[in-house]
Specification:
The structure holds two protein chains of two kinds. In chain A, about 40% of the residues lie in helices and about 20% in strands. Chain A is of the alpha/beta class. Chain B is globular and about 40 Å long. Classes of the chains: A alpha/beta, B alpha+beta.
C-alpha cells in the first residue's frame, strides 16, 4: 500500500467522509476514490455500488482484478426532542445499528432517568451541533413540536445533506414550517427532502409505533441512498 | 458499548499502521479480500503487522493470524505482495485452518 494513500484514507475516515480504496491485485497499485469522484466503465459501476451498499469485494474489470474496500462512516441518528417517541426510538435504533444522540434544551425532558444509556444533550441544538456537526451519514428526526427548537436543527440538517430529515407534525403544521424554513433561507428543493409527517405510513398510533415508523424510514433512506439520483439520470 | 461516531483510534488497524509508519517501522497490511461459507471476519477486515511481529486487528478471529504474521515477515523483507488462501480440511482444521468450515483469501502487502 502506498503510504500517502494510507494517510489520505485515514484522513477521510477521521473526517467521516466515505472513501473506497481500490487495489489492483495484479500489481498492488492502489488509489482512493472519494464519493462523487467520477470513475468510468464497469469499475466505476462497481465502485458506485460499494459506496451505496458499504460492501467490500473483489471485481473483474478491464481484464484485471481489483479489490474495492468500502470505508463508510458509521450512520447515526440525531433526535431533536427528548419526548415519548424518543424513549422508544433510542433503544430500537441502537439495536438496528444506528447510534442515537438526543438533543433537547428542556431540562425537564432531557433527564438521564428518562433516557438511560443514551447520549443526551440538555442544550439548544445550535450549541450541540457546533461541537458535533451533522453530515451526510447522519439522520435527523425533529420531534419536539416546538419551532424554537426544531427549526434550526432542520435547516442545519438540510444544509449538511443529512441522508434523512424527518419532522413531526400534521400537514398543516408542516405548511407553516415550510414558510419559516423558506424565511431562514432554505431552498424549495431542500425543503422537499423533509419527511413530514414523519415516519413510514404504517398507521402508527402510539409513540412506540411512531418510533418504529421513523426507524424504518431512516433505514430505507440509508439503504436507498443514491438510487434516486441514478433513476433521474436513466 | 461502543457508541463513538468517529474512529476507535486506539484499536483501528489502519490508524495503527499509519502511526507505526511514522515511527519508522516496517509494516505489512493483510486484508480479507474474499470469503466463502462461514467466515469469521468480513471482507475488508485488516491485520497489520510490524517487522518485530507485533500485530493489531484480525482477519479470522484468531484461527490463521499466526500464519499470516509469518508470511507478513517475508512480505516486509521482499516487498512482494502475496495472496494467501486458508480453508478448513477436516483433519487440519485445528492446525492452520478455520474450524468454522469457511475459506478466506487474504492479501498481504508491504506499506510503502
Amino acid at each position: 500500500m502506498d503510504p500517502y494513500v494510507l494517510k489520505t484514507l485515514n484522513e477521510e475516515r477521521r473526517a467521516r467522509r466515505a472513501a473506497v480504496l481500490v487495489t489492483d491485485l495484479g500489481d498492488g497499485r492502489d488509489r482512493i476514490v472519494r464519493e462523487g469522484d467520477h470513475v468510468a466503465g464497469d469499475l466505476g459501476a462497481a465502485i458506485a455500488n460499494a459506496f451505496r451498499t458499504g460492501n467490500s469485494r473483489s471485481v473483474e474489470a478491464e481484464g484485471r482484478t481489483f479489490f474495492l474496500n468500502a470505508h463508510l462512516p458509521r450512520p447515526r441518528l440525531v433526535v431533536v426532542g427528548a419526548v415519548h417517541i424518543s424513549q422508544a426510538l433510542a433503544p430500537m435504533a441502537r439495536i438496528a445499528g444506528y447510534p442515537v444522540e438526543i438533543i433537547d434544551p428542556r431540562t425537564a425532558f432531557a433527564t438521564p432517568e428518562r433516557f438511560p444509556e443514551v447520549a443526551l444533550h440538555a442544550e439548544w441544538p445550535e450549541d450541540v451541533l457546533k461541537r458535533a456537526p451533522l453530515d451526510s451519514y447522519t439522520a435527523l428526526a425533529a420531534v419536539t413540536h416546538d419551532p424554537k427548537i426544531d427549526d434550526f436543527a432542520l435547516k442545519a440538517a438540510l444544509d449538511a445533506r443529512c441522508f434523512y430529515v424527518g419532522a413531526l407534525g400534521s400537514r398543516k403544521t408542516h405548511a407553516k414550517r415550510v414558510e419559516r424554513l423558506l424565511a431562514l433561507g432554505a431552498g424549495a428543493d431542500q425543503i422537499a427532502r423533509i419527511h413530514a409527517p414523519i415516519g413510514l405510513d404504517i398507521g402508527a398510533a402510539s409513540p412506540a409505533e411512531i418510533a418504529v415508523a421513523v426507524l424504518a424510514q431512516t433505514i430505507h433512506a440509508f439503504r436507498s441512498r443514491g438510487l434516486e439520483a441514478k433513476g433521474a439520470v436513466a | 458499548m461502543d457508541e463513538s461516531i468517529y474512529l476507535d483510534e486506539a484499536r483501528d488497524p489502519l490508524i495503527i499502521a499509519e502511526s507505526w509508519m511514522k515511527d519508522g517501522k516496517d509494516v505489512a497490511i493483510a486484508t480479507v479480500v474474499e470469503t466463502w461459507g462461514s467466515a469469521p471476519r468480513p471482507v475488508g477486515s485488516h491485520l497489520v503487522i510490524d517487522a518485530d511481529g507485533n500485530f493489531h486487528g484480525s482477519v479470522s478471529g484468531g484461527c490463521v493470524e499466526g500464519a499470516v504474521v509469518t508470511e507478513a515477515m517475508d512480505v516486509i523483507d521482499s516487498g512482494k505482495a502475496r495472496m494467501l488462501e486458508f480453508g478448513v480440511a477436516d483433519e487440519t482444521a485445528w492446525q492452520v485452518g478455520l474450524s468454522c468450515g469457511g475459506r478466506i483469501k487474504v492479501y498481504v502487502e508491504r506499506l510503502g
